[in-house]
Amino acid sequence: MRQLKCDENSRKIASMPDSRSEELLARIQDVFRISESERLLTDPVKEAMTELLRTSAARLRAEGASVLVRNADSGDLQFLAATGEVADRIVGLEIPAGKGIAGFVLMSGQPLAVSEPDDESGFYAEVDKTTGFSTKLLLAVPLRFRDDVIGVLEYVNRSDEPLNEPFTPAEMDAAAVYAEAVAALVNAHIDADLMCDLSRRLIQDGTEAADIRAWLLSLRENSTHARALELAALVSELASKGDAEVELCRTLLESLIGYSTSTTGRLDLA
Amino acid sequence: MTKLVDPTFAEAASNFMPDPQWLNATGNGVTVAMIDSGVDAAHPDLVGRICEEVGAKIEGSRVTFLPVEDGDLAGHGTACAGIITQLAPDAKIASIRVLGASGSGDAQVFLAGLEYAVKQRYKIINLSLGTTKPQFFAPLHDLLDRAYQAGCIVIAAANNLPQPSFPSIFSSSLISVVKSEERDPLKFGFHYGEVIELTAPGVSIRTPWLGGGYRTLTGNSFACPHITGLLARLVETHPELTPFQAKSALHAIARLNSE
């Protein structure tokens, strides 16, 4: 089906005058580069976040974990990453500003543990209704970055017996430590999203290249993950050279990822 | 090294005790302001206890407080009100809702809520909220000083997180509380010289929740209303209690607890 559409598009392009078809092709290449760079920028951060959720949930004997991030404009909270039984249904769900336990944790900056093992219906109504999950135990801690609360980290239910054992103060403290690492990743994700926005703006508005460079520079200077952004910038620069370079870059990165995941220790590049 | 407390003074302080009648008090005639997520006034444990319910409304850069009827948006306020009424069953509660008015600028709304409570001259103000934003340090410090001068006793929940949270770290103008695993509400602790001076029960506390139910909760914000409830009793027996006298009384009782 996709192939068919591509063929149709190719035919349309072929029937256009040369200058227009070249322009369209250039645009299509830009779109391709953006989608590639979006994946390159945001996927590794999300994967790292999910892995951290999985590890920390196991350490806290929690059945599932999730990250909610505040939308800077509306104040709504959105699930950015999750693990556990209903992870797929949770990611992308929104909780309106100032509602529910997560809304309170976001505003108060106070970690909370709530439990009601006897209530069969579960209590996290705003999420349970949509996912079909039944929340019996919940541990929610604020995600702080610099001086601001940017989201909420949540752990739900126990993974093994005793299933109704409430989260303890020590687990609350441990969750607060994990929250520091998760918050840094959330911030990296927000920055990566900004980069993607920038790419889109580049195409839509024809923004001046000098402005973009200045903006990128300020972003990099303010970022805690400048190295990741540097890498992204290098990839983006390579991608601008042409399709062969994009292909080469991808092959190289894939090989590197393949190599590093196949080795148990760290790469010894010294 | 100079001792922080002179031994003779410490002895005198230990002899100071509020009228023991406070133990039998119920908070009669005392109103507690609660800056929180609202309250479920229809909860069986809270019926007849809520004397005011207002919520924040934002108009441009102004925050005003108007009567609201849609209760509690998170469950937290209902839980805190439940703890206060368990300890002071005849105290009235004024619910000042600061949650849900806005997604951003939350600290601004909570500051406005505290200002509203001070302007209304509520004798006891329960604050289970805080902010880590440094730009609110000065305005909150100023407001807490005004509360102190107006005779309002403000009780704030601390947090155990690495960043300082305002106003809980202000030691002179308010009473800050952190949770302990103690079960008996009367066995709270006072640690003079520490940033957060009071400890009170805050682990696995069973309290009212939305929809007439109950939940078991853990957090500093549930330790805070324990001290608030006890202060409602103290204010019933000592209606003119000032913020510094309140601290002295809590200190004296806690010393007795630790003996």
Can you offer a commentary on this structure?
- The complex is a heterodimer of chains A (270) and B (259).
- Chain A is of the alpha+beta class and 270 residues long.
- Chain A has a domain at 47-183: GAF domain (Beta-Lactamase).
- Chain A contains 9 helices and 6 strands.
- Chain A has helices at residues 2-14, 18-59, 87-90, 100-108, 125-131, 169-205, 209-222, 226-239, 243-262, and strands at residues 62-70, 77-83, 94-95, 112-115, 137-145, 148-158.
- In chain A, α2 runs antiparallel to α6, α2 (18-59) runs antiparallel to α8 (226-239) and α6 (169-205) packs antiparallel against α7.
- The radius of gyration of chain A is 22 Å and the shape is elongated.
- Mean pLDDT of chain A is 76; it is low at 1-6 and 264-270.
- Chain B has 259 residues and is an alpha/beta fold.
- Chain B has a single domain (24-258), classed as Peptidase S8/S53 domain (Rossmann fold, 3-Layer(aba) Sandwich).
- Chain B contains 6 helices and 11 strands.
- In chain B, the strands form 2 sheets. In chain B, strands 3-2-4-1-5-6-7-9-8 form a 9-stranded mixed sheet, with helices on both faces. In chain B, strands 10-11 form a two-stranded antiparallel ribbon.
- In chain B, α2 runs parallel beside α5 (220-237) and α3 packs parallel to α4 (137-149).
- The longest helix of chain B is centred in the last third of the chain and has 18 residues, at 220-237.
- Chain B is globular, with a radius of gyration of 17 Å.
- In chain B, 54% of the residues are buried.
- The model of chain B has no long low-confidence stretch (mean pLDDT 89).
- The A-B interface holds A 70-76, 97-101, 103-104, 106-116, 119, 123, 142, 144, 147-149, 166-169, 172-173, 176, 180 and B 37, 73-76, 98-104, 106, 110, 128-134, 157, 159-163, 165, 179, 181, 203-204, 209, 213-221.
